[in-house]
Amino acid sequence: MAPNLPFQMNNPALFRDQALINGQWVEAKSGKRFDVYDPGSGKVWATAPDCDVNDTDAAVKAAHTAFETFKKVNPRTRAQCLLKWDQLIRENRDDLARIVTYETGKPIAESQGELDYALGFTWWFAGEAERVQGTVQTPSAPGRRVFTVKQPIGVAVALVPWNFPIAMILRKAGAALAAGCTMIVKPSPETPFSVLALAHLAHEAGFAQGVFSVLPTSLDNTPALSESLCRHPLVKKVTFTGSTRVGKLVAKICSDGLKKCTLELGGNCPFLVFDDADLDQAATALMALKWRHAGQACITANRVYVQKGVYDKFAQTLAEKTKALVVGHGSEKTTTMGPVTTPRSLDKAEAQVADAKKNGGQVVLGGSKLHGQEKYPGYFFEPTLITGAKDSMLIAREETFAPVMALFEFDTEEECVKMANDTSMGLASYFFTKNVDRTWRLLENLEAGMIGMNTGNTSAAESPFGGIKESGYGKESGKDVAVAEYLITKTVDCTPTPPTLARQRSGSPSRPRWGGKVSSAGGTRSRSSLRSYILYILCALAIVASFVALPRIRAFVAQLAFPRTPFSFTTTRPVTSSTMVADKYRKPPQAPPLFTHTPDSLVSDTKRLIADSKALQDKIVGGVTPENADFKNVLLPFARDDNNMSLESHIIGFYQAVSTDAKLRDASTEAEKLMNDFAIEASMREDIFKLVDATFKKQKDDPSLDNESRRLLEKDHKGYIRMGLGIPAGEQRDRFKAIKKRLSELSITFQKNLNEEQGGLWFTPQELDGVPEDVTSGLKKGEKGTENEGKLWLTFKYPDLFPTQKYCKNAETRQKVFMANENKCNQNVKLFKEAIVLRDEAARILGYPDHATFRIEDKMAKTPKTVDDFLGDLRKRLAPGGLKEIEKLKELKKSETGDADRYFLWDHRFYDTLMLERDYQLDQNRIAEYFPLQTSIEGMLNIFEQLFGLVFVELKGKDRDAISETGKGEDIVWHPEVHVYSVWDDQSEGDGFVGYLYLDLHPRDGKYGHAANFNLQPGFITENGTRRYPATALVCNFSKPTPKKPSLLKHDEVVTLFHELGHGIHDLVSKTIYSRFHGTSTVRDFVEAPSQMLENWCWTPSQIKSLSKHWSYLTPEYKQAWEASAKDG
Q1: Which residues form the Aldehyde dehydrogenase domain (predicted)?
Q2: Residue 984 lies in a domain
Q3: Considering just the CA atoms, what is the radius of gyration of the chain in Å?
């Protein structure tokens, strides 16, 4: 229980006032305790155990015993413990900040800031835990192999100061624990409780007994206890932060045992301001750097050098800003500067001010201690500004560690650098200048381990922290270097047995190099084995192809030499129908899915599926214990339940994207909400997770499980953790569950609003001048006698929207359309804002700093920084070309309108299209004449037939009746316009059935508004070992055909069609054991790759020929219509 504290705690269990040895909270062996003072009041507010040399041996031996086990712990497990520690610290941030404020005196906002800064280390080192790696060298001697391995060094001791008790611990312990070392912390006598609270949370996070220990001690016992820890033979590493004087003693003691040391010592850091600096920027940075924690930071600015030309102005600016500081107890919200932490700092500040006055310095502000006044009972000193400082003063030669700032004047850069380097220390230096040449000189000439260039902040988890000269050695934080301080390197030389000798010894026959099958008959290779090679070749083509836009366009246009009379590039084989194929392709072994649901049946079927699944879950939980849990009795039944449920659930949710019946769409939405709520509840059942967790620990590396089953086990286990089961049961977990449910509702409602959006604008034909006639002829006309008589209704669907933005000559019309489309579905704005806030909250509950980090953790990029760096680099590379192109487009706009001072978003599609037409003779409308939707689809299916050995059989009329389970062909589609294909392997592939492909190509009210592929039923292996075949649907919104013209595709629409159809093919040819991994249900980084590679065919001349055919050749009626339009044109 916490003693009577001067503040309230949300989590009283966090306050610990005993030592932690071998996971046990104990008193010092002497039974003595020491007082801990509140610097803001000067009063004792708690006591701590006064450990001494008699406590050392038990703590070190326990840490060493723990090390023997901890060093073998999987790095990912160590990382997970660090992340859990990070999460718990975040949850207790406010309580920890209160403790820090009463220990150190710093304002509560600064204490909270220290927590936020410090948490960067736990998060960073959690990532570093899995990135410890050795090296492989090319040996000089043939036949040898040389490599290195990294291993944790052993028990580490951390001797830490009082100024940043949280940050110092997490920076040191984060690296040590990530490396696999155990750690004993000897905190400063002023700040034991913040460290003990961290130790409590470390234990809660799952670190084993003895891994993290804390020995508090008084100032009197600090030297002896520290020395005994450094000299103990089982201690292999010491990390110390403190004064240079004590650091040298630590180094000497450790040298007796040749122990590895990291020393972060005194600073006396210079801060340089040149004439050309941004003075406000420099002053703002200096205020934060100097007055933070009343000047008690090792990297604070101790000597401020200001060039003569701006000296007075800069001094005045600092004085004005400093006057605004509010000195007071750190717990008061208005306080911006608290007391110093110890009375010793008051004495030192007084001595330095007196010395400065004696040597000609002028005290512009402050200069006295406030300690003892009624308002300031604690260790307070006025924020003090001294001008006219000289190198002979004490403040120039020693660290101040108090709120005293001295300004030194200089004339030249050389003089300033000499003064800045005239110290035995070299921790950090700061300078402010706009001169690039000077910047490089200063970076090279200033003697410091860290340089702040136009900034006062040099510390972050990702940047190495440490000094040179007498400021110490070794690095804390940063990639590789910090963890390396806790590692040893072993070099390994070996000489492998020559391969010929190895085969003679084993008697094994040699295998084909590429894993081919050895056959006594010489070996034959089926066409089916080529599918993987084709995909491999596609990947290679996509990587090495270096097409750029304009050469592609030229090659593309070269294939479309527009004739005076239309002709077909190639004779495209029409898509096969069931009347044209052999009998073996006429009767699929599996009926297609039915679309006969009603609003009531959708909801009732959903409830039935949920009830059945829940019953199975309860049955398994009731009959299986963690002790006998395994893949067969836990994961496999759940996977089979998922298989069976997916046959219905995908279709139930699909109606909201395609049905013309609003009631059916609403029921589908309701059903999806029910299903999602159940999924969230099921994924947060702790009783199930215990079984999955037990199975994972037993069988994660079980060779008897096939690869897909091991993958299922890994994904399920990780899924439960990412759904919050790593959060302790209680308020936080309940909040997380509520957030997940609300996010599900928001997502469903958001998409429903988009699907059912029916907005548009009325325009006169004159306002739509330039829009292709085949677009305007299909627009709804205003009724006679109404205000819209003679007008046309332009919707925001793609077939209306894009042609208008590209070809409409009226800029005002383009602006209206653009703005209205961008502002459609305004009801989604509040949903979007709410989702952003909830996603961020959920991520933070899980211990992530933000939603982006949570989402990208298991992607190839791993961190948002990788993405930001990539996009930043991309922007840097592309921006010059983009700006150049915009200038060209503005010139084009000026030639059209006479005014191009401003270039708007609604201008871009229009002038970009115009540029292609004028500069590259690329007429998209003329090109579209050669891509009728019908023949483009036929051509694409032909390509897929050739690539993958497939046969597509279109099902119409009586053919649908014959395979429908109800005997009614209309029951196997959701709309009369939908095309259905049965898909088969061709003869070379074995003539087997593959699945069903649906094409829903044109817009309708209430339909999904973009282009996408939907899995209707996944494929998988059933319980009896047979194959369940998939069904997949391509949903698009291409323009509808008219009696006078078919639906024609712009080239970008051809690319879209090929892309989405690629997803469909991926869905069809995929063969997995479990529905969980079927088709596009693959890792997010890969899901688009096959379709993106297949898009390449849309730029290949030979494939363009096979896809294209002028629309006039489709029917005699179309030919007649084309001829008539050609005469009119």
Answers
A1: 25-492
A2: yes
A3: 37
Among candidate residues 726, 750, 769, the one where a domain is terminated: 726
- Per mean pLDDT, which range of 156-160, 237-241, 369-373, 908-912 is the poorest? 369-373
237 in a structural domain: yes
Instruction: State the catalytic residue, choosing from 91, 110, 190, 264.
Output: 264
Q: End-to-end CA distance of the chain: give it in Å, rounded.
A: 92
Give yes or no: residues 94 and 172 share one domain: yes
264 is catalytic: yes
Q: For position 413, what pLDDT does the model report? A: 95
**Residue among 755, 757, 735, 592 at smallest CA distance from 672:** 755
pLDDT higher than 60, residue 542: no
Mean pLDDT, rounded, of the chain: 88
**Token pair for residue 19?**
């030592």
- Tell me which of 230, 298, 808, 1098 is the catalytic residue: 298
* Residue 182 parent element (H or E): strand 182-186
* Residues 902 and 1006 both lie in one domain: no
Q: How confident is the model at residue 580 (pLDDT cuts 50, 70, 90)?
A: low
Residue 661's CATH number = 1.20.1050.40
pLDDT tens-digit series, residues 97-140: 999 999 999 999 999 999 999 999 999 999 999 999 888 888 87
1015 φ/ψ angles, rounded to the nearest 5 degrees: -80, 125
Q: Extract the tokens encoding 600.
A: 């009531």
Alpha carbon of 1039 to those of 775, 979, 1001, 1065: distances in Å?
8, 16, 8, 23
CA distance 250 to 1004: 78
Give tens-digit pLDDT for 606-655. 999 999 999 999 999 999 999 999 999 999 999 999 999 999 999 999 99
* Together in a domain, 1026 and 1072: yes
The pLDDT score that the predictor gives to residue 1039 is: 86
* Domain total in the chain: 5
Query: What's the CATH number where 1013 sits?
Result: 3.40.390.10
- We report the CATH number of the domain holding residue 243 as 3.40.605.10
Tabulate helix, strand, coil % of the chain (nearest 5).
Answer: 50, 15, 35
Residues 251 and 283 in one domain: no
Alpha carbon distance 104, 330 (integer Å): 9
| Span 672-688, average pLDDT | 89
For helices 93-104 and 108-128, the axis angle rounded to 10 degrees is 120
Write the secondary structure of 15-40 as one string of H (helix), E (strand) and C (coil). Answer: CCCCEEECCEEECCCCCCEEEEEECC
pLDDT, mean of residues 473-500: 84
Q: Which two tokens stand for residue 3?
A: 């003693």
> 252 and 357: one domain?
no
- From residue 97, alpha-carbon distances to 11, 93, 117 in Å are 12, 6, 12
Token output for 1024: 């009896």
> What is the rounded CA–CA span in Å between residue 648 and residue 603?
12
Look at residues 568, 688, 558 and name the one whose alpha carbon lies nearest to residue 633.
Answer: 688
Residue 405 half-sphere exposure toward CB, CA atoms < 13 A: 30
What does the pLDDT read at residue 1122?
A: 84
Tens digit of pLDDT for each residue in 1041-1052? Answer: 888 888 898 888
Looking at the domain assignment, is residue 256 inside a domain? yes
- Could you tell me the pTM of the whole model? 0.50
Region 558-574: mean pLDDT is 36
- Which of 922, 944, 971 marks a domain boundary? 922
Q: Evaluate whether residue 505 is within a structural domain.
A: no
- 242 and 299: one domain? no
Domain interval for residue 411 = 269-469
Residue 404 pLDDT greater than 80, yes or no: yes
Looking at residues 144-158, what average pLDDT do you find?
93
Statement to judge: residues 259 and 274 lie in one domain? no
Q: 3-state SS string over 1080-1110?
A: CCCCHHHHCHHHHHHHHHHHCHHHHHHHCCC
* DSSP string of 141-168, one letter each residue: STT-EEEEEEEE--EEEEE--SSSHHHH
